Amino acid sequence: MSGRVTEKTTNSTTSWRQRISALRNVPPTLRIVWESGPEVVLLGLISRIVASFLPIALLWITKLIIDGIVRAISTRQGVSPRFWWLVAAEFAVAVGNGVLARFIDYLDSLLADNYTRHVSIKVMKHAASLDLIAYEDPVFYDRLERARVQATDRLGMIQSIGRLIQQFTTAVLMSASIVAFSPWLLVLLAVGVLPAFVGESHFAFLGYAKNFKQTPIRRQLDYLRLLAGSKEAAKELKLFSLSSYLTQQFTALSNQIYDEDVRLARRKFVASSLLSLLGTMGYYAAYVFVIWRTLLGAITIGTLTFLAGAILQASANIQQVFSTLAGIADQALFLTDLLAFFDMEPTIRSKPNALPAPRTVRQGIEFRDVSFKYPGSERLVLNHLNFFLHPGERVALIGENGQGKTTLVKLITRLYDPSEGQILLDGIDLREYDLESLYREIGVIFQDFMRYEMTARQNIATGQIEQIEDLDKLRNAAEKSRSHDVIARLPLAYEQMLGRRFDGGIDLSGGEWQKVALARAYLRDAQLLILDEPTAALDARSEFEVFQKFSELTAGKMALFISHRFSTVRMADRIVVLENGRVAEQGSHPQLVNQHGRYAEMFEMQAASYR
Predict the structure, then answer these.
(1) Which of 190, 480, 553, 578: disulfide with 403, CB 3.0–4.6 Å?
(2) Domain map (residue ranges) of the chain
(3) Residue 487: is its pLDDT beyond 70?
(4) How many whole angstroms separate alpha carbon 250 and alpha carbon 240?
(5) What CATH fold (topology level) applies to the domain 21-343?
(6) In the predicted model, is pLDDT for residue 49 greater than 70?
């Protein structure tokens, strides 16, 4: 029993420590808010401070008016001329309060738009700057997902900080007026409010812990929801009758989240109701005391009205201050992942004073004793590999799946860095070159190329986005990839929206998409062109024609391509066979066939299927 009590105490202490520690997230968040719109933030701050003075001004004027009425009735002398000025002043303050409240709402909406746009762009830019290898880590995906959600969902916390300033200023003014009458009234109110603050803070923390734990499940739900409505999956879902299975999975996971949410909401409802009762009791105890003093003749009716309003508003604002502060502290917990995401730094980046990539490669690219393994895995995908690509040479990489072909491409393009060894360009380590300069010299199309649901013009221009307005260059690239005829048949040609996501979009066949993707590589005036099995959806004849054109267009350049079709790889000047992460064989097609090794065995197996 004592062990459970100690454990509960430890957990409670830890949760409070986490809350207080989370407040460190507020200043960097406020910097992001300030960056999103300094003029709006400053104007909103001034407006809230002014608005916080209006309630007490309204109460004080009301007090003077009521005292004036009571005096006029009791003396039967009527009201003084300044009485109607007080009424006019009360009207002006009430109108000003209403207008200012709407102006603050307007500023909040502007800030919301500015902040959401700014932080979303910031998340997109930072995600793009991180290492590709980070995307191999499920933990990173969870953090990225939470960061994306927090980028916009924490907008309420930003607005809460503005409300806190207004509530605090109003609470101080109201409390000062109450203290002037009797300090014990304020103590009574605070004692009633504090338990509610503790309760709100505790349940907000439990909400954060619950949401944190649910992140992987919510990602599964998003995937199942996407899968159920995916065009790519629709055929198999129907033919294999998978819809019921996926629906059952979704139902089970969503029920788990629902049950956890309901349990926490029920606990919060019961506890919050009991704690709010204390606040109500504190208010009415103070209210009764003021009435008693009025009946004794110690204060006027106007003062009674003023104090009753001040007690009510002080109680409400003190509760709001504690509640808002607790909310900010606990919302700040949710910002931990967003700020941690922004703190992540890429390891693959340009060094200070990095070298520009050579505009004319003279020696070529060398893999010197290169090894590589993915995070969380001990298996070496590349194992002390040595490999050379000479200027003007066309090399084909072949090997069974998982032998490191695509990994080699990602290393040569410096999307990854080797775990061991060096990759040299003209005798200099790739890490010494400026990344942007290096990327400009490489044109690459991967097997899992992107199908951008944009116009045909934009799809091709993604290969060299600064050329997007140069239709002649885009058309020339399309002609090289044999996609020009495909695009020319579309109703809007190069301005045609591709894909089915948006209205008026037209989808292409797999082979047509691949030709559009190839045009991106040809758009770049690069010294190294790489095709990583991008023609898998093409028939053998079409692939042969594409690679024949590729061979013509890469004359005088370094070219690297991966294909499982031996009729295609025969075009290469040199064929490199990868096995167990190393170069098993290399040479021309006739040389490798005559060696009767691994290449000859694979070639014979494929040739036999055509006999």
Answers:
(1) 578
(2) 21-343, 455-525
(3) yes
(4) 18
(5) ABC transporter transmembrane region fold (1.20.1560)
(6) yes
